[in-house]
Amino acid sequence: MTSLIAPHPFGHDITDAGLTEQFGQFRHWEERYRQLILLSRKLPALPETLKTPENEISGCENRVWLGSQRLDDGTFHFYGDSEGRIVKGLLAVMLTVCEGKTASELSGVDPLAIFDRLGLKEQLSASRSSGLEALAAAIHRIARSA
Fold it and tell me: Which residue, among 88, 97, 84, has the nearest Cα to 136 in the 3D structure?
């Protein structure tokens, strides 16, 4: 069995359905904002050795790194980090949707759809939305290259 690079709880302990239920309780942006900060704290910091130019995503408001590992069963483990707490929380949400999927499953997933379901999309600045699009594009590139 392959040992995970930079393990995290997203996609297994913290699920898409769980986030949908949790964020569904919030009516105000400030509550969602606080939840993103809490999620960012659950995403372990990447070691500096994984913060490489190859893993850095351009087009994001803060520096963001995204890496992946293809596991023995053909699924992907994604890991990442960001210098910004909100962006790191947004990354954690995206990892929840993409973690543990095969290349074919990833090609059929819109990693951005969850932000609309959670009531986050309309509150994102243009630069954060652009950064999320860059992350989604990186995930689809990883899936295509498998």
Answer: 97
Residue 103 CA, distance from chain mean position = 16
DSSP state of 123: G
Fold entry, domain 16-145: Sufe protein. Chain: A (3.90.1010)
Q: What is the reported pTM?
A: 0.94
Q: Where are the domains of the chain?
A: 16-145
Question: Among 67, 46, 64, 61, which residue's Cα sits nearest to residue 125?
Answer: 61
pLDDT digits 0-9 by tens, 20-46 = 999 999 999 999 999 999 999 999 999
Q: Are 124 and 132 in contact (CB under 8 A)?
A: yes
C-alpha–C-alpha distance, residues 124 and 88, integer Å:
14
Residues with active-site annotation: 60
Structure-token pair, residue 24? 């569904």
Q: Using alpha carbons only, what angle is made at residue 144 by residues 140 and 146, rounded to the nearest 5 degrees?
A: 120
What tens digit of pLDDT does each residue of 47-103 get?
Answer: 999 999 999 998 777 899 999 999 999 999 999 999 999 999 999 999 999 999 999
